[in-house]
């Protein structure tokens, strides 16, 4: 396998994430929280617009981030915190009428996220050692995070070219520890993003959207995503880990159980789940007009069992989850 090295000067939090000395959480479903619980309109589901709305940003920090910071710090977990740039790639910026703002958007996002973490630490007497936080540049798919669209025929090289624009901006701005490519729907896009991250020397975690049958929207098995991405990166730095997200714990369990029963080695590369609250399919969720928070305690119980059974480094919440889900899985 190719190298899994970190960036030249990894943060203390990144070292802890990789060493496994401390378990880590992710935040919850920020977009669904902002839309359904905070009542904020997110054009194209682009959460970074909150940084230009000071009053809404204060609400978001007080009612979402600060709760999760407290949960992680008091339970002894580290935390992965997204800068909310999942929709800050060229195709979406064009739809939003914000072309030419790529670096500016990421610069604001990094500054606001780091500021929120540092202010909370100072207020509550925490340090980088007592409350380690990995600042994550969250990158999304070129298309929809739930399904394959007009990008179905794109090659890994074309995805590489597309995502290089955002990755170059992230590199130029600096201030992040890690890229997390969330809701990736195809193997070809996984390969393209991994190559774009290697080009700029930033470690990446690739996290796949999974359907109720445990497969990616392009029909690939999770095993195929891991093995083909690693193989395509031969001679380059491979992703740090592979995760799954936008999937209920009950829908990924059988895939992991089968891999363990067959001693499949790709499972050693799989280290995290960011789970949906709902058991519904992506099609059902797309057609929903109300938030489905699921059964919080059952969700947490299932996720904790997967964490323990498969030695996951990171667990957390995706669509429909909030700080109550994170508190339940942290206990």
Can you give me a brief rundown of this structure?
The chain is α/β, with parallel strands linked by helices. 46% of the residues lie in helices and 14% in strands.
Report on this model:
It is a single chain. With 331 residues, this protein is an alpha/beta fold. It contains 12 helices and 8 strands. An 8-stranded parallel beta barrel has the order 1-2-3-4-5-6-7-8, surrounded by 8 helices. Strand 3, helix 6 (156-173) and strand 4 form a beta-alpha-beta unit. It is globular and about 50 Å long. The mean pLDDT is 93.
Low-confidence stretches: none
> Span between N and C termini?
36 Å
Main sheet record = 8 strands, parallel, barrel
Mean pLDDT across residues: 93
Q: What topology, given as strand order, has the largest sheet? A: 1-2-3-4-5-6-7-8
Extended strand count: 8
Rounded to an integer in angstroms, the radius of gyration calculated over CA atoms is 18 Å
Please give the count of helices: 12
Question: How do the helices and strands follow one another from N- to C-terminus?
Answer: HEHHEHHEHEHEHEHEHHEH
Defining traits:
single chain; 331 residues; alpha/beta; eight-stranded parallel barrel; 14% strand; globular
Topology (elements, then pairings):
Layout: H1 12-19, E1 24-26, H2 30-37, H3 54-75, E2 78-82, H4 90-95, H5 102-124, E3 133-139, H6 156-173, E4 178-184, H7 187-200, E5 204-209, H8 222-232, E6 241-247, H9 249-261, E7 270-275, H10 282-286, H11 296-310, E8 314-317, H12 323-330
Parallel strand pairs: 1-2, 1-8, 2-3, 3-4, 4-5, 5-6, 6-7, 7-8
Helix pairs in contact: 3-12, 5-6, 6-7, 7-8, 9-11, 11-12
């Amino acid at each position: 396998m190719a190298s899994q090295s970190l960036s030249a000067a990894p943060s203390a939090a990144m070292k802890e994430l990789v060493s496994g000395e401390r378990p880590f959480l992710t935040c919850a479903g920020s977009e669904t929280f902002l839309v359904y619980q905070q009542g904020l309109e997110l054009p194209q589901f682009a959460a970074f617009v909150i940084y230009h709305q000071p009053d809404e940003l204060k609400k978001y920090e007080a009612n979402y981030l600060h709760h999760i910071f407290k949960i992680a710090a008091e339970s002894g977990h580290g935390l992965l915190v997204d800068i909310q740039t999942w929709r800050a790639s060229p195709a979406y910026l064009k739809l939003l009428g914000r072309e030419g703002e790529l670096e500016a958007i990421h610069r604001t996002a990094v500054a606001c996220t780091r500021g929120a973490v540092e202010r909370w630490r100072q207020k509550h007497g925490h340090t980088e050692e007592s409350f380690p936080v990995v600042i994550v540049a969250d990158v999304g798919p070129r298309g929809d995070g739930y399904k394959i669209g007009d990008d179905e025929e794109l090659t890994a090289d074309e995805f590489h070219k597309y995502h290089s624009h955002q990755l170059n901006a992230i590199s130029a701005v600096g201030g992040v520890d890690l890229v997390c490519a969330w809701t990736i729907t195809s193997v070809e896009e996984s390969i393209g993003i991994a190559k774009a991250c290697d080009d700029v020397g930033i470690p990446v975690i690739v996290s796949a959207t999974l359907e109720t049958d445990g497969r990616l929207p392009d029909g690939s098995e999770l095993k195929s995503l891991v093995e083909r991405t690693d193989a395509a990166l031969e001679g380059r730095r491979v992703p740090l880990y592979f995760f799954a997200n936008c999937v209920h714990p009950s829908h990924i369990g059988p895939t992991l159980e089968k891999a363990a029963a067959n001693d499949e080695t790709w499972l050693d590369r799989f280290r995290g789940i960011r789970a949906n609250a709902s058991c519904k399919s992506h099609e059902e969720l797309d057609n929903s007009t109300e938030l489905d928070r699921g059964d919080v305690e059952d969700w947490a119980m299932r996720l904790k069992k997967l964490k323990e059974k498969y030695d996951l480094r990171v667990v957390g919440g995706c669509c429909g989850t909030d700080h109550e889900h994170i508190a339940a899985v942290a206990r």
